[in-house]
Specification:
five-stranded parallel β-sheet, alpha/beta, Rossmann fold
Amino acid sequence: MEDKVKPKRVESILKEEKKPKIIGLTGGIGSGKTSIANYIQSKGIPVYISDLEAKKVMESPEIISQIESNFGEDVISENRTLDREKLASIVFNNPDKLKLLNSIVHPAVKNNFERWVVKHKNYSYLVKEAAVLFESGSYKDCAAVITICAPVESRIERVINRDKTSREKVLQRINNQLTDEQRIAKSQYVINNEDFEQTKIQIDNLLISLKNIQ
């Protein structure tokens, strides 16, 4: 009698597919994550910019409707776009409101990231850039994490020039984040980004190492 083999469930088949490794990329404000992410992309490696993608997700009609239901119509402009300043003023220094907003946005961003990974499934590894990689817990899904460091004074100068803000406000934002030491303790790789020409050499060497990551 011929043996009958039960068909595998679709979920099991998908799990067996070889997926790209996820490499986390993080660092404090002014560390130069964006410049480094762009340089990595220029080498033909896809990079998911979490903050940029989150902004796109938050402008989707479904998420806007959920935000409107929970935070009121005042945070939505007449053309059905998000008034980020009004929303920020509500969640700023209000942990419960911030938690509520995150409960709406984070699952949608996670789904967006998963679709992005599928789209790039033929790569051996992908890079996920996120300022709050450790705080959000998403570092647990990474095969390795790269932390970008830079001297505090360099970071302050970069942010002042970029955002046209004050030194005091930049320092406040730095002090509200994890320290470089805290990030480094949980990272497999560290890039010191003071001189960008030297930084590019560090990245080139690192990308060679990542080809062999298990």
